[in-house]
Amino acid sequence: MGANYTPSQGWFHHWLDFDLDAVRSDLDALVALGLDHVRVFALWPVFQPNRSFIRPRAVEQLGHLVDAAAERGLDVAVDALQGHLSSFDFVPSWLRTWHRRNMFTDPEAVDGAARYLETLAASLAGRPNFLGMTLGNEVNQFAGPPHPDPDPCTYEEAGRWLTRLLDVCERAAPGRLHTHAEYDAVWFQDGHPFTPAQAARLGRATTLHSWVFNGTAQRHGHDGTATVRLAEYLIQVATAWADDPARPVWLQEVGAPAPLVPPEHAAAFATATLDNALTCAELSGITWWCSHDVSRELADFPELEYGLGLLTSDGAVKPAGRAVAETAARLRTGPPRPARRTTALVLDAGDAGTAPHRSVCAPGGAFFEAWVRLAYQGVRAGAVLADRARDAAHLEGRGITEVVWPSDVK
């Protein structure tokens, strides 16, 4: 149980005025909540302002942050290609305007990103509390609409990009939790070049970003079954695409966005969401978004981004922070007891590799709404791809004894 670290002073711009004492204070506050890890974000233009130059001072500061976390018993996962954070894009100048090139397909651009990832991973490889690299935060949003200036690619090109950069991380820091992270277009948007199969089969774990502002809370309300079980649902969808039924799933981002989740209901939402996610045997970790609120001194954020923290920007614990701390305390006393999911809903998104009809998984889609109806009926359903629905060995290996098609759920 951990948090995505949003520094209380300066947000992610803190790399420009790095203050290790302020970082230590923030980390102390997270330890006081009973958390055991943080996910941290290196701003790409700050760390690699030129394609052939990675700033040694920035790499050194990242190491100091990881060491400060180790002193407090915190593990650290590091995101490199930032990329996209809270509605702002941080892309180095050597990819934009006069030097415009596609980050996913231009050979020199990919070489530059690989060099950057290799440098960060190698610098951290000897630190025992370094969990691993995530390539970047929701980098798939650059690959197409609704991004205003996309870097288009095909699903084959996206797959090659992911494979190459994950391999670079593995060579630089062998055996660590190297992953990639996408926003939910990867599961929901027909034609999106990053695919569910890539999310569930490449890297050491599947990462999920569960945000109820994707249409779920709008359709089902802040405390509807679909809303408080969205994270659980996404874990089951991800498991359906995995080749290994035991592949770990990391709930890498989950939060309570106002006003869809009113602030007075944030604690109840957090408790219900986490309790439902913890019924999933595949779940390996939860990282709440985010540690600290964004200071109101910073301008131009979408309103919901200012209040997502477990703590305020001046360090006061919020109701959601207390709820997460209570869940962390329960987990320290004993592991969760996953539900036995003997019923699986059949997920037919077309070809399993490209998922041309994956919008059936989105809020309002046939698969999504059928899974929610089963949930209303008290069924903790799993999910199975249509091409595996009659594979007796696959079903037996997952403990599935009943297969249900969405059209059969009344």
* Unreliable stretches: none
- The ordered H/E elements are EHEHHEEEHEHHHEHHHEHEHEHEHE
CATH class of the largest domain: Alpha Beta
User: Could you say what the CATH architecture of the largest domain is?
Assistant: Alpha-Beta Barrel
What overall form do the CA principal axes indicate? globular
Structural class: alpha/beta
Oligomeric form: single chain
Q: Hey, roughly how much beta strand do the residues contain? A: 5-15%
Mean pLDDT: 97
Read across the widest sheet, the strand sequence of neighbours is: 6-3-2-1-9-8-7
* Integer tally of domains: 2
CATH topology group of the largest domain: TIM Barrel
> What is the number of E strands?
12
Radius of gyration: 20 Å
Q: Cα distance, first to last residue?
A: 37 Å
Main beta sheet strand tally, sense and closure? 7 strands, parallel
The DSSP helix count reads: 14
CATH superfamily caption of the largest domain: Glycosidases
Helix content percent band: 25-40%
Task: Describe how the helices and strands are arranged.
Layout: E1 2-4, H1 20-32, E2 37-43, H2 44-47, H3 56-71, E3 75-82, E4 84-85, E5 88-89, H4 107-124, E6 130-136, H5 155-172, H6 185-188, H7 196-201, E7 206-210, H8 216-220, H9 225-228, H10 230-241, E8 249-254, H11 266-277, E9 283-288, H12 319-333, E10 343-347, H13 366-376, E11 382-385, H14 392-397, E12 402-404
Helix pairs in contact: 1-3, 3-4, 4-5, 10-11, 11-12
